[in-house]
Amino acid sequence: MIFTGKKNYGTVVNDFLVNPYISYTNLGSVQTVEGNTPSASTGIDKKKHISLIKAYQEHLERRRMGFANLNNIKVKAYNHVRQSEIERFSTDFGYGKSNFYGHSDTTGSASGLCSVDIKKKALTELLEKNEMYLFWYKKLGFKVMINNDLHRLINSFAFYSERIEMFFSKNITNCVTVFVILIANNRIQASGVALDSDFYTAFRTALAEAYTIEWQIRNNPLSHLNNYSDKFHEGVVKYVDYLSESLSLEKPLEVSNNPDIEVDSWITSIDYHVLPGADDNLTIKCASKNLYNCLPQKKYILSGFNRAINQIYNIKKQDIRNTPECILL
């Protein structure tokens, strides 16, 4: 019934034949004590119907996390590392501050029909944001050496941005995380991040995410990136320039023989909870008391600085304060 209104969803008309399909939905939000959940969602794929399914799944993640905020009741979760059932409050897996996990957004959420696949996707999202944290504030990463295969892959997206910077890291997991940053007119236009055991898969996924966000933000005065001043953008671009010049230039990593995600031994909390929902799609939230469960923005990092990741990597509050705000998504 939600797709009976043609204005509630759609697929973007491609400017170039090589571009993948971007689909979008606007299916309403949930009002919680933390505010309204996002109403819009997007998905990208080479197949039009798959891109629409992805957009709908993103909508489910945002909506069901809002449901988790409505009642502060005890719920069951599963600690994957210790393979044991645990008890938490429903709000620990919703939006906003959790006494156990710190601040939380949609990081670590995933929807779909196969529990094995969405558990992996949820964990991937959680690890991506923490690799982003170490890359941005601790400079733990490398600049990608572009070969012919990567060059062709970049060109297949036909970006509007005039400059593309690419980095990767491999710190807390056996998988590689790729970061794509799009720049035009001395402003950050979009970014993409992806984690996978295969470098080229991660690279392709990060490019697709950056392409989607570039479409969302381009000519949209209400976008979060357009709310920052030119001076702020100039400072962030200078920092990206610094990373590009100072980090080691490395070739793409070899394909891993192990497709499973493994995390460092100090990560003892990888907790899964099935969010409330009423259709065939399952939505899982993955959270960790050792890691950050949100985008690595300064106010959330500093307000929850007791995360184990800061102790392991000897990160000081001054390291955060002396670095420009991370506005990667």
General description of the model:
- There is one protein chain.
- The chain is an alpha+beta fold.
- The protein has a domain at 137-250: Double Stranded RNA Binding Domain.
- Helix content is 33%, strand content 25%.
- It has a 5-stranded antiparallel beta sheet.
- Strand 6 (74-79) and strand 7 form a beta hairpin.
- The protein is globular and about 50 Å long.
Topology, number of strands = 17
Terminal-residue CA separation: 31 Å
Radius of gyration: 19 Å
Total helices: the number is 8
Write out the strand line-up for the largest beta sheet, numbering strands in chain order: 7-6-16-17-10
Mean pLDDT comes to 87
Biggest pleated-sheet summary? 5 strands, antiparallel
Strand share of the residues? 15-25%
Helicity range of the residues? 25-40%
CATH fold node name of the domain at 137-250: Double Stranded RNA Binding Domain
Protein name: YcaO domain-containing protein
